[in-house]
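Researcher: I'm comparing several assemblies side by side, and this is the next one on my list. It has 582 residues spread over two chains. Same procedure as the others: predict the full complex and return the structure.
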Amino acid sequence: MATRRQPTRAEIRKQKMQAAIVYPLDWLEERSGLVGATKYFLFRNVPADSNWMQTLGSATLTAFIVQAVTGVILAMYYKPTPGDAYSSIQNITDHVTLGWLVRGMHRWGASVFIILLFLHMGRVFLFGAYKYPRELNWIVGVVLLLLGMLEGFTGYLLPWDQTAYWATVVGINLNGTAPFLGPWLAGFLRGGQEIGADTLTRFYSMHMLLIPGAIFGLIGLHLYLVIRLGVTSPPWSKEAAGEEREDEQQPVRVGLTRPAPSRRGGA
Amino acid sequence: MTDEPNPHDEPHLPSPTLWPIGFAIGVAVALVGLIINPLYLSTLGAVIAVVFGVLWARAATADLRGRPVEVEPERRSREAAVEHVEAGGSRFPRSRFLEGATLGLGGVIGGIVTVPIAGFALLPPFIGQKKHEVDLGPVTDFAEGQWYVATFTVDPAEGEVSSRTAFIRNNGALTTGGSSVPSFTIISNRCAHLGCPVQANGPSGQILGMKNIVQHTANGKVTLVPVVPAGFGCPCHGGQYDTEGNRTAGPPVRALDRYDYLIKNGNIILASSYSVSHVDNTGAQAKIHKYKLVGPGEHVDGIEQVFYPLNPPHH
């Protein structure tokens, strides 16, 4: 009978060190389950032939996060009153340290966000990823697209220059020509029957609080549905949809020469 | 009574560590010392805090360092709990009552909170909008038959953002039934397509040697620029109008809006504005087909007016 080798002092020390390092994570996991949830989110199985095009959704999310972060910083300097709005934007661009960069990121990032939204939507359409059981996620995505464009519309007024002002006049009046409720929608957007100080502040509030809040919530729902329903195979996939993966059908043999298959799926 | 000891009589395990109390006292002494005696009292407080902090950390990490921690054994039995639930089969269980009460009360509270907020969010644009009259200065500033581009501030408190422009022509005296009243054509520059600022198609009067007129009235600065228009045109989408504001080309759906006016103490006062489908004749003889003021792009006549049965109140 081979006796079990006693661990050396160095090995015991190493084990204790590892336990001390993992302790905060264990503490968090035991009280919240967040570590397991994060692992579940990150190490999902995806089709082995997943495509780079399927990263467009993540790219859109990243663009949105950039908009949220730069927007919060811009809000520290921007003044949403008719007298101060334009000069505060000039101040951000010309005088605040790196203000030109953050404003530029927000201004150009807005276009990037919209472009990525459309590319992502095009990918989902061409891959047929909107079909059963993912119809609801398509609908949520369309609402997100509309909210994203509403962000563009409300943000366009904020520089409060001639372009911003007249583009908003035209935009609101376009809404006003919608049959039946159009005039009421225009009145709500203007905060009255004439564009004025109330229009600027209500656009600012919608742009930075109301719509982003809705977008955050819907992104949560969008991602929940992605995780619940899984990632679609590309249309050229050899793996038939709904078939179990090969490594799940076979009994998994774990040994020294054959490590457990990675929980991670394809690339 | 059984001899079994009541679990509530025994102290719970693991017993709570008391070191944080000493740590808190140390921090408090150090902070008070900062005011009373920073050198000695704060140092003493810091030492107390460090000592008790180390003891606290040792107690908190006892498990991690391999010292077994006594844990209170589970005394409740699973079967008893299940029996307890199954025994209580009343006709209307308390849980259902509480469920209904939570939903009902939650709904009432939500409604009480939501109704005024929704009202505040939706109603102000349509209720209690201010009505303004704009003093444009003496009637004598307006030469008969001459067009002026008048720029004025509707509400001086709002400032630049309430700046508006109108095209004004003095048509001379209109004699009806023996009495003579002054007649003005006052056309809003808001395009009837989507609300861009309509421009005069023609040279500014300055080229012909006419001077701009600047008046300071109750509404602040009013500027009158003489102009010789052949009509009006919109820079945004190319809508064209004649000098009575009738649409001649482009996307507008009706004629340009006009202002009502009155004359007070020899000054011309702009009152509310109204929408116009079209105008027959010109100048003092103009027959204006007048409608309640509506937004740009809205039809006031023809079959399309059925799309706009209700309009929010305009001033």
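Model: For your comparison table: The longest strand of chain B covers residues 163-176.
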